[in-house]
Amino acid sequence: MAERGAPMEDSAVHGQRPRAESRSPVIDQVEGGRLREGPEYATFRSRGTTDWLLIHTVAGSGQLTGVEGSVRTAVGDAVLLRPGVLHDYRTAPGEAQPEGAHWEIVFSHFHPRHAWLPLLDWPQPVTGVGRIRTRGEVHQRVAATLARSAQAGVGTLRQATAFAMNALEEALLWCDTQNPLTSRMDERLLRVIEHVDAHLAEPLTVDRLAASVHLSPSRLTRLFTEHLGTTPQRYVERQRMTLAKQLLDLTNRPVAAIARELGWRDPLYFTQRFRRFTGQSPTAYRRRR
């Protein structure tokens, strides 16, 4: 028997259930959860739902069927069902899972905020059923943020729904990094970007960054140019300068201390680079306040 908060069903093979009440088409409404089901699990929706449904597979495999065909999900696959789309879904047959048929998912029923609509434009292997494949760290982040959204939604915080919606938005944003309809970002590039932002004071040469994700320096440079329109060196300097401006604005630290904090041992060289980046010296930039 599915736990409280399971995807809303018309009927299931493990027992007839009351038909879900119709939901009003409002925004900022979310309900999620996590399920692990065996080979008998199946849900039939002859009328679809009145909200969007996001299902992310974390273990095993599932099969979703729409009017025009079926979609099989593997670990890391996120499936997005639009409102009103007739569909069924079930644990995938055992032959597809040598270790035994099961399906573990995190899911979310939601009414999206208007600003989310571009994030919901997914490739549709079956009409009305979108799918984005996530792997590695992106998969882990999507699963974690959907679980956090579900947990927040049943919490007692005064802004529980807002916390749940914000976590769901983060999951959709991570899915969007892998959306081939936009500009799917290589997972290795995402890891480098996060490493740079967390280690700005360290030596961040192209060789070191490339080695951290097992790429050649030339390949990493091509990825940066393709996805971000800049080179790794320029990206690192841009991030350092952005933080330098914040520290100059918000603190009274000496310029030399800020330079050291951002990886420049020579304050004079930092000043030269800062002037080239902003058109002002660090002192003049701070004085403008």
Automatic annotation (TrEMBL):
<dbReference type="Pfam" id="PF02311">
    <property type="entry name" value="AraC_binding"/>
</dbReference>
<dbReference type="GO" id="GO:0043565">
    <property type="term" value="F:sequence-specific DNA binding"/>
</dbReference>
<dbReference type="InterPro" id="IPR003313">
    <property type="entry name" value="AraC-bd"/>
</dbReference>
<feature type="domain" description="HTH araC/xylS-type">
    <location>
        <begin position="190"/>
        <end position="288"/>
    </location>
</feature>
<feature type="region of interest" description="Disordered">
    <location>
        <begin position="1"/>
        <end position="33"/>
    </location>
</feature>
<dbReference type="InterPro" id="IPR050204">
    <property type="entry name" value="AraC_XylS_family_regulators"/>
</dbReference>
<dbReference type="Pfam" id="PF12833">
    <property type="entry name" value="HTH_18"/>
</dbReference>
<protein>
    <submittedName>
        <fullName>Helix-turn-helix domain-containing protein</fullName>
    </submittedName>
</protein>
<keyword id="KW-0805">Transcription regulation</keyword>
<dbReference type="GO" id="GO:0003700">
    <property type="term" value="F:DNA-binding transcription factor activity"/>
</dbReference>
<keyword id="KW-0238">DNA-binding</keyword>
<keyword id="KW-0804">Transcription</keyword>
<dbReference type="InterPro" id="IPR018060">
    <property type="entry name" value="HTH_AraC"/>
</dbReference>
<dbReference type="InterPro" id="IPR037923">
    <property type="entry name" value="HTH-like"/>
</dbReference>
<dbReference type="InterPro" id="IPR009057">
    <property type="entry name" value="Homeodomain-like_sf"/>
</dbReference>
